[in-house]
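ARCHIVE CARD
Drawer: 12
Card no.: 0347
Subject: one protein chain, sequence and derived structure
Cross-reference: see card 0346
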Amino acid sequence: MRVAIVMGSGSDRPVMEKAAAILERFGIDHDVRVLSAHKTPDAAFAFAAGAREAGYGVIIAGAGKAAHLAGVMAAKTTIPVIGVPISASLQGFDALLATVQMPTGIPVATVAVDGAANAALLAVAILAVGDPSLTARLDEYRRELAEKTLSG
């Protein structure tokens, strides 16, 4: 399974590259693209609607300000969508609220403002449910994290 990393604009790339780095660490195939819920809605809808058939298992969607990208993705697919609110204004609080306040029936898992690394780790955990090898790598990552924390 692949993971899609989508962002509302190119200015979101420095935050979203953190998700790509985590996925690379776990050897998970991923694609990165810019799709705007407001400026390219038809392209965003088409991408989300075809995501499952394209082989994606999770979509990570990051956007700032009026951060509706994750919600648009979730509205058009039933694969898991993880929203990353990006601190583009108001210290990311506006993006956080736009991402987390989804109506019943259209869930979006939401991580912290600028939390793209955690979004990728959540994507890894989702994919690991059916993959014992990936589960073992995630367990090892957690052991390394604990050791680093205790030694540091």
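Annotation on reverse: The chain has a mean pLDDT of 96. Strands lie at 2-7, 30-34, 56-64, 81-86, 109-110.
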